[in-house]
Amino acid sequence: MWGIILAAGLSRRMGTAKLLLPYKNEPIIYHVIRHALNSSLSGVTIVVNSHLFPILNEEKKMNGAKVVVNDEASIGMSESVKVGIESIPSDVDAVMFLLGDQPLLSAVEIDFVLHDYERHQKKIVQATYQNKRGHPVLFDKQYFCDLRLIQGDEGGRSIVKKYKEQVYYTETGKEPIQDIDTKSDYERLLREEVS
Q1: I want to staple 70 with a disulfide (CB 3.0 to 4.6 A). Which of 8, 65, 106, 193 is the partner?
Q2: Is residue 51 very low, low, confident or very high in pLDDT (cuts 50, 70, 90)?
Q3: Could you give the angle at the alpha carbon of 132 between the alpha carbons of 187 and 32, nearest 5°?
Q4: What is the pTM of this model?
Q5: 2-194 placed in CATH 3.20.20.70
């Protein structure tokens, strides 16, 4: 099972490259990459925009993670999903989508989802946090064609909705993990760091 970190957003609401903002002495995106690499995923691809590509592609902290560029990042998340799907090895049985702006996501949640995919007969597995749906979300290879057809600023939400009978929800028991989209989100993250 392969991890795809969606990190090509243009940070319009933040006003600066949010994934490079510091958290615990390193950029936000590094936390997500490290947790993905420390999980049971067989490989990791990071989909970035053309502004982040030169920075992350040169970094030694990638530890084997593949960095690919989404030249159409302005179209929305769907293009990153497609670029990610096209970048994975052909023998991959499932992909897991993670968000690059969730530094509080850990390898534990990733492995919970992987374990439930292997244990249950469902082909889509989505993490929940106190019954609130979130990331990561895993899709079996039978949905790769559907994922290639999504449009606009949407990830796999329409696929989850369309095939709801095939979805298994993995309850993590944790508080919901927030995206870092605005300056107030980032300030809240920093307050949690010192508390």
Answers
A1: 8
A2: confident
A3: 50
A4: 0.92
A5: no
